[in-house]
Amino acid sequence: MMETPVTRELDQKQIPYELFTHDGPVRSLEQAAAERNQQPEQVVRSLLFRLAAEEFLMVLVAGPQQIDWKQLRRTLGQSRLTMAKPDELRRITGYEIGAVAPFGLPQPVRVLIDQSVLDQEEISMGSGVRGTAVLLKTADLLNALGEDVEIVSL
What we know:
The protein is an alpha/beta fold. The chain is built from six helices and eight strands, in the order αβαββαβαβαββαβ.
């Protein structure tokens, strides 16, 4: 079985998961979900935000769910934040767009998980390698994230 930075951390934490490899390029959230036999809401997007010069935050959100930026700023007590640029994303997470997950990161990053993710019993997310995903139970995701994860409604 293929090993990725995400699967290494999940294995280390003894978190059960399934690794899924797409047959070809993934061009949409809907395609990814269909190929994984899931609904789009089960595909978790890991979004990286820049809060300050070298301060970043990852938000996990369910598939098509949009983030309410005003609510996110209010939750964080920040008047300003931006999406991380692709070069910042690679530098902070070590991953390319489409492969990002809150596991196997080169440095710790604060993680918020939107309530929309918790509405699903099973989810999938980036594995650290484009074209592959990890599928796991939401309870196992929370267990893997540990006590530091913050649950929010965005």
